[in-house]
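Trying the structure run again after the queue cleared.
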Amino acid sequence: MLDCHIRWMIRRDMPEVLEIETKSFEFPWEEDDFIQCLRRRDIIGMVAEYDDEVIGFFIYELHKNQLHVIDFAVRPDVVRSGIGRQMAQKLIGKLSQQHRNKITLEIRESNLAAQLCRPKHQKNPNWKNGGITRGKSRKAWNTSK
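Done. Tokens:
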């Protein structure tokens, strides 16, 4: 398992984030999509870094009672090395009993890799299945702490 450092996403991360996005999704976001999204005060972007390289990222939206993950990807050459799990743990660590106590994430029906990741988290009592959706969305699971 690679041990990564997770930090806030900054502008100079964009080329690596775009490369990961393009390699990870059938309908990838473009740079303008990221920029418009990250300009919002209720949206936070983070990257997973290993050996001074961005190897994963996630973007989530703050709601009153939940965090909604709107983009989550790991560089294809390091998939299944624990990076996604570490990013998910970072998100879980942001939950609290008093405020945001649930995470929602969308996964496309065609995203088999993400669907295969779900059973590992479903063994965790904090995770519960939210279903798979069709089309261009990416919806899969919720968590309560």
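The domain at 5-144 is CATH 3.40.630.30 (Aminopeptidase). Worth checking whether this holds up in the mutant runs.
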